[in-house]
């Protein structure tokens, strides 16, 4: 058996593993984002968000 005979199955398996890893990382990131969105903001973080919202609203006027 030569390298050319093994090349395509190895490339297919490697490609599938890369796709699987990208999907897994995406799922972990989405789960972490949902978890962070479910947590209440601290008082300082809430104040920063209000300042950001009001500064954008004032800039639009």
Overall description:
The structure is a single chain. This protein is mostly helical. It has one domain (about 5-60). The protein is about 90% helix and about 0% strand. It contains two helices and no strands. The chain has helices at about 5-40, 45-60. The longest helix has about 35 residues, at about 5-40. The protein is elongated, with a radius of gyration of 23 Å. It starts with a helix and ends with a helix. The model has no long low-confidence stretch (mean pLDDT about 85).
Kindly list the characteristics that best describe this protein.
2 helices, single chain, 61 residues, mainly alpha
Low-confidence stretches: none
The assembly state of the depicted protein chains is single chain
Helix content: over 70%
Percent range for β-strand residues: under 5%
Which helices and strands, and how do they pair?
Elements lengths: L2 H36 L4 H18 L1
Describe this structure in a few short sentences.
With 61 residues, the chain is mainly α. The protein is 89% helix and 0% strand.
